[in-house]
Design goal:
- It is a single chain.
- The chain is mostly helical.
- The protein is built from six helices and three strands; from the N terminus they run αβαααβαβα.
- A three-stranded parallel beta sheet has the order 2-1-3.
- It is elongated and about 80 Å long.
- The protein starts with a helix and ends with a helix.
Length: about 200
């Protein structure tokens, strides 16, 4: 029994040492990367401080889909109204009258159909909107990426990481040798866009 305990302790000790050695190797590799920067690409869409061209394209696509989103708002309002009507007509022991049942049933059926219609249209409109937005922004995003590379070279960064992409995948990236350059890049991009006009 004593030999087993010694073996387990030795195994744990070796495991801990190998993990710390592995971690030290990773730190060395991060340090070898050089100057790194982080941008938050979601801020590129900020109306006041974002990339003007990207904000304009995004607004244009949103304007194209405004009638469909307004239709969804109206449908949602109708569902709330139907829900209220169904609740007031719902069978209760003391207040319910049998002659109200057909009206209750028709309102309930209409509510179910409206909810199903809303769910289907909401899914379809959002998918169509996301696809259209991606198409409209594709060439502009390629241009932004090229300018981001130019910015990195000009400022001496060996890597620029998009924190929104990292966070959306469940990772958190933290290091003490990182510069946050989102607004600097936005200003750089917008100044180049202004010069080219």
């Amino acid at each position: 029994m004593e030999k087993l305990r010694v073996f387990v302790k030795s195994f744990i000790c070796v495991l801990v040492l190998s993990v710390t050695t592995f971690a030290q190797d990773r730190v060395v590799q991060l340090e070898d990367l050089g100057r790194m920067a982080i941008v938050e690409s979601v801020l590129f869409y900020d109306e006041n401080k974002g990339i003007g061209e990207l904000v304009a394209v995004s607004k244009q696509v949103l304007e194209e889909y405004k009638p469909k989103f307004d239709e969804l708002k109206d449908l949602k309002k109708r569902i709330k109204e139907l829900l209220s009507e169904v609740e007031t007509l719902s069978p209760r022991e003391q207040e319910f009258k049998m002659e109200d049942y057909p009206l209750y049933q028709s309102k309930f059926n209409e509510l179910q159909k409206s909810v199903a219609e809303f769910a289907e249209k909401n899914r379809d409109y959002k998918q169509a909107y996301q696809k259209r937005k991606a198409e409209a922004e594709y060439s502009l995003k390629k241009k932004i990426k090229r300018r981001l590379v130019d910015f990195a070279i000009k400022k001496g960064f060996s890597a620029i990481i998009d924190s929104d992409q990292i966070d959306s995948r469940g990772f958190t990236f933290v290091t003490h040798r990182v510069s946050y350059v989102t607004q600097d890049f936005i200003d750089y991009y917008n100044s180049l866009a202004t010069e080219s006009q």
